[in-house]
Predict the structure.
Amino acid sequence: MKRHTGRKLISLSVLILIGWSLYFWVNYPRFGGSEQKEEIKTWEQLVEEEAAKKAETAERASSAEIKSSQGQSASGGRMQETNDMEVKGSESAAPQTEHEAQQPEEAALVFAGDIYISPYVQENYNVSGITGIVSERLLSEMANADIVMVNEEFPFSLGGVKAPDKQFNFRVDPLYTRILTDMGVDLVTLANNHALDYGTEALTDTFEALEAANIAYVGAGADKERAMQPYVVQAGQRNYGFLAASRVIPVTDWNVENQQPGLLCTYDSKLLREAIKKAKETCEFLTVYVHWGIEKSDSPQDYQKQLAREYIDAGADLVIGAHPHVLQGIEYYNGKPIVYSLGNYIFNQEIVATVLLKVRVTPDNQPLLQLVPASASGAKTQEMGSEEAEELYQYIEDISVNAAVAADGSVAPK
């Protein structure tokens, strides 16, 4: 009896122990044997996932380096041969960045032709400001340029003695230098047949007025050295130089070699060629602005063509002309453009046709030309409509030597 009872107690105890074990195993797995298996499984998965991520990252980095090296090689980047792709990538990256930093940016130059701030122009400006004499579109084109240059066809002065035996004598109150600054003009050429209309006193006043307005000038000076001096300015990591001279003066006394102050003249190209060669020592791109030709003629004279080629042979990259008061054609010589005359830009009341010349100089020092056609009515210069512009483009191409003008006004050799 006691043995039977003992067996029952032992069986009951075993059942109770098994029940409690099952209870804790189901509800509290951390006390069971499956926890160790689960931890081992999770750790293995984490190890595998981490290894997979590292492999994927390494693959992407290697692919990116290969693409980078291929791109640099295609763009002209030079890399040394190596078995270590990471070293190759790091070695090539720095020289490429330095190379890019040293590349000159494109620069935008804008040129306009003859400017005379006549009484009509002054009246418009007094009433309406700068937009009374130049349209907003043209002002925007000038404002967006790195350098703006025009031909100042008069002296800024209230003094001096009127030159005798001249049909037209111009002189403008120095207060109106603000018209040039309002237009964004950086530089003027004074080498023309009106700069000494009121003698050396007025020319000296002009120097002072321009300097006070922070406007540079070329083509004239208090002495020969100053008249031959280029204006050099940096734009787009490149130095740009500008020179000017006149092939049209009423008397020989205006020549700075005969009278000082005076103008740099180019009846003989020797002096200007010397100035060009010297200027090229300090600038990469040089523009020469010349006063020449026959008034009202749209065809350049033979001497204009000869002089222009001599300037380019001496080192000029761009030759621009003024004086005819009308547009003349364009020619390319040894790949360099010659714009024989830009005509009047601001003058009296009416201008049938003119252009604002935009020159974009590329990183490889090539000048790309574009014409912005304009005209003036009531002493205000403004852009032409599309039909008028199209006609003007065709006209300029017709009178040019070997230049084509596209529908957007861009010019290229043909």
